[in-house]
Amino acid sequence: MTLSKDAVLGLIALALAGAYYAGATQIQASLLSDAVGADGVPRVLAWGMAAVGAGLLLRGLVWRRKTEEDDETLPLRHHVRALALLGMLIAYLVLTPVLGYPVTVALLLGSVSWFAGARPGTALAATALLGAGFFWVMFTWALGIPMPAGFF
After folding, report:
1. Residue 40 Cα to chain centre, angstroms
2. Model's pTM, two decimal places?
3. Engineered SS bond to 106: which of 33, 56, 132, 143, CB 3.0-4.6 Å?
4. How far is CA 23 from CA 16, 27, 44, 62, 119, in A?
5. Residue 43 in contact with residue 21, Cβ under 8 Å?
C-alpha cells in the first residue's frame, strides 16, 4: 500500500506536533507566570498542528481517491507564488520592529489580498486598515500582549 502525499504530510505533521509538544512541556514555570503560563501557547500550537496533521492523514487515507493529477508535478508558477508569499512574510518579520505592528500588518493584509486577486482600491485599503486595527486591539488591549510600536 502506498500512501498519498497528504497522508505522508499528515504523518510528518503529527510527528512534528508531538516533538513540539514534548519541547513545550520542558518549559519551566516561573513564579511570575500568569494562568496560561509560558508553555500555554506552545501547547495550543502543538495541538493545532496535530489536528491539521490528523486531518491531512484522514484526507489522504479515507476521503480522497487517487486521480491522474496526483502523479503530476506542480507547474513552476505554483512554486514561484509560494515563494512570493514567503517573501511577504519575511518582509513582515523584518519590518515589524522598524515600522511597528499596525503598519506592517496593514501592509501584509493588503499585499496578500492583492496577491490573491483583490482589486486595488478603497475596499482593499479599508480591509487592510480595519484588519490591522482589529488585530492591534485584539492583541494589545484584549489579550494584553505588547506589540512593537515601531516609529509611533
Report:
1. 18
2. 0.55
3. 132
4. 10, 7, 13, 31, 43
5. yes
Contact predicate 131/109, CB 8 Å: yes
**110 exposure class (CB count in 10 Å sphere: 0-12, 13-18, 19+):** buried
Exposed / middle / buried, residue 146 (Cβ in 10 Å: 0-12, 13-18, 19+): exposed
pLDDT tens digits for range 73-98: 667 888 888 899 999 999 998 998 88
> What is the helix (H) or strand (E) element at residue 119, kind and residue range?
none
Q: Which residues contact 46 (CB under 8 A, 6 or more apart)?
A: 17, 18, 20, 21, 24
SS3 84: helix
Structure-derived torsion over alpha carbons of residues 143, 144, 149, 152, reported in degrees to the nearest 10 = 110
| Domain parsing of the chain, residue ranges | 1-72, 75-152
pLDDT band at 109 (very low <50, low <70, confident <90, very high): very high
User: And the C-alpha cell for 24?
Assistant: 513545550
